[in-house]
Amino acid sequence: MTDTVDVTGVTKSYGKVPAVTDVTCSLKEGETIALVGHNGAGKTTLIKLMLGLIRPDSGTVRVLGEDPAAGQFAARRRLGYLPENVSFNMALTGRETLSFYARLKRVPLDTVGALLERVGLAGADDRRVGTYSKGMRQRLGLAQALLGRPRVLLLDEPTTGLDPALRRSFYEIVAELRADGATVLLSSHALTELEGKADRVVIVNRGAKIADGTIEELRQIAKLPTRIRVRLADCEAGTVDDWIGRTGAWKRVNGHVLEIDAEPSEKISLLRSAASSDAPVVDLDVAPPTLDELYAHFLGAEEAPQ
Amino acid sequence: MMNILIVARKEIQEGLRNRWVLATTLLLAALALTLTFLGSAPTGNVGAGALDVVIVSLSSLTIFLVPLIALLISHDAIVGEMERGTMLLLLSYPIGRWQVIMGKFIGHLAILSFATLLGYGAAAASMAATGVPIDTASWTAFASMILSSILLGAVFIAIGYLVSALVAERGTAGGIAIGVWLVCVLIYDMALLGVLVIDQGRTIGGGLLSALLLANPTDAYRLLNLGSESVGALSGMGGVADNAALGPSALIAALLAWTLAPLAAAAMVFARREL
Predict the structure, then answer these.
(1) Quick one: pLDDT at residue A306?
(2) Nearest CA of chain B to the CA of A31: how many Å?
(3) How do beta strands A152-156 and A32-36 pair?
(4) Which residues form the ABC transporter domain (chain A) (predicted)?
(5) Does the distance separating the beta carbons of A71 and B92 come in below 8 Å?
(6) Chain segment B116-150, per-residue pLDDT in tens
(7) Tally of domains within chain A
(8) Average pLDDT, stretch B89-101?
(9) What would the mean pLDDT of A262-273 be, rounded to a whole number?
(10) CA nearest B77: which of B143, B172, B163?
(11) pLDDT of A17 over the 80 cut
């Protein structure tokens, strides 16, 4: 797989306010990447740098082999962008709006109708954009990003304002694009929503990249404990230590329920002992760390040294 | 070039849809027709061609109205799109920033030209239809009046873009646009007149007067249309025009310069702007 987007050592500040500090990352073709961070963490700035809308103070950005800010437009024809809070001119209809963008990208106009249908706007194409709901505008935004079979898609908080059904059809479209070999960058401020949708997660905080890898890799790096919750038949607290084989690392939720935070290395042995015949356990739940906990861990690790 | 035309087409489409074209055309036509029929009544039969009288009244109308309309259309062009967020998306497309400005300029100028041609044309057509004799010289003067009105519109569209590219908020752009209009249309002439009266011709000679008149695009337009031949005698501008010693070509060149310089400056400022 070849790199479609390369960001190397990029720093950008607005006046004295640093927006992005020394970020290096590369996106490959056929890959779906989640760019996760708080509001104001630098996600939008990174996307604008990849679009060439702003120039880095230092470092280089290459998109499809070109410097996007250099004023050469060959790469931009194969690039789709959905801005956060997308907006359109209210006076034109959905079809007119999409046709305008299609002309700019030199995409044949007869594809516009099919694209409107694909995002579920076929019935509303001759209505003014001013009459559209937020979700419909977001869909029109997605439609313009999909014009001309883009190789790189930069979607800035694409699912805000979409209801769950639309959200699902949105991720179906993303999956089709991935299958087609396109690079899809999804930015979000919540990691949970992106579980199973992204091949790789890049977490940014205060303009710096603090984590980069698959969700599995991030779990391994973070070494977050798995929470094991057991329901005891009828047991005194003192004897719990005997079968668990360690002391103190459990807490009693109520008379019968215990909660144990198990490190990844000891998880299996703990489960074995809890499942053994001499343990007075009637029920057992295993909860791996959630993505929100994982995210909070990386943010916390970043904050700690400061 | 293709991109410029695509943007221009969209501007015209928007202008038609949000009734800008209709409103300006109707406004100009209504005022032009009113001036034509009311304005010609008191002159009676004085030897001046009827169309020449109309040229004088329509030129005065243009000086007030066309810059105002042009600034209204243009002051929002860049800062407004940035505030609404549409500029961000547009600039992510394979289009240069100067192409965006040029496309908008052509689109807006087309809207203004259409309104001026139709509005003022209605006045001339109605005169011809009512059987008023009009000689060729008057027709030529009328045509050049319309063309220079469009050129004056182009000047203020370009100035509006420069304002729009410079400021951070739409409200500021609107305020500055009104200020530009006031200065160019009203205050500058009053101040110039005051200075000329006080000076009594001691230090301000013909050369300096010419320069001062060229420094304001509305004065260049005024001289171009009101300063020559029979129209000049009618409007009372003939004396000023003779003193200033400015030919039509110099005046047209001044108007063109007043269009191109702000337009180039707007493109330069916009190119450096961070989104």
Answers:
(1) 44
(2) 21
(3) unpaired
(4) 5-231
(5) no
(6) 999 988 888 888 887 777 778 888 888 888 999 99
(7) 2
(8) 92
(9) 78
(10) B163
(11) yes
Q: Which residues contact A35 (CB under 8 A, 6 or more apart)?
A: A43, A46, A47, A185, A186, A187, A188, A202, A204
Q: Which two tokens stand for residue A245?
A: 């084989």
Q: Which residues of A, range 126-185, sit inside 8 Å of B by Cβ?
A: 128, 141, 144
- Cα→Cα distances A24→A60, A182, B238, Å: 9, 21, 70
- Residues A125 and A166 both lie in one domain: yes
Q: Do B274 and A96 touch (CB under 8 A)?
A: no
A166 and A120 co-located in one domain: yes
Distance from C-alpha of B29 to C-alpha of B9, rounded to nearest angstrom? 24
Provide φ and ψ at B273, rounded to 5°.
-70, 140
Tell which residue, B152, B144, B151, B139, has the closest CA to residue B52: B139
Residue with tokens 């040294």: A305
Q: Please give the interface size between A and B, counted as residue pairs whose CB atoms are below 8 Å apart.
A: 61
Q: Which of A172, A189, A220 is the last residue of a domain?
A: A220
Domain assignment of residue A305, yes or no: no
C-alpha A76/C-alpha B238 separation (Å) is 57
Do residues A254 and A210 both lie within one domain? no
| Predicted confidence band of residue B266 (pLDDT cuts 50, 70, 90) | very high
Given a cut of 80, whether residue B45 has pLDDT beyond it is no
Whether A267 is in a domain gets the answer yes
The torsion angles phi and psi of B85, rounded to 5 degrees, stand at 90, 0
Give the CATH number, domain containing residue A261: 3.30.70
User: How far apart (Å, rounded) are the C-alpha atoms in residues A20 and A178?
Assistant: 27
With an 8 Å Cβ cutoff, are B91 and A53 in contact?
A: yes
* Judgement on whether residues A215 and A233 belong to the same structural domain of the protein: no
Lookup: tokens for B114: 């259409």
Given a cut of 70, is residue B228 above it in pLDDT? no
- At residue A241 the predicted structure's pLDDT band, cuts being 50, 70 and 90, is low
**Any chain B CB within 8 A of the CB of A50?**
no
Residue A101: list chain B partners with CB under 8 A. 93
ipTM score for this prediction = 0.85
Closest-approach residue (CA) in chain B for A51: B92
A94 and A202, same domain (yes or no): yes
Q: A220 — contact with chain B (CB < 8 Å)?
A: no
Q: Which residues of A touch B17 (CB under 8 A)?
A: 91-92, 128
Please give the share of chain B, as a percent, with pLDDT higher than 70. 89
Q: What single-letter amino acid sits at B72?
A: L
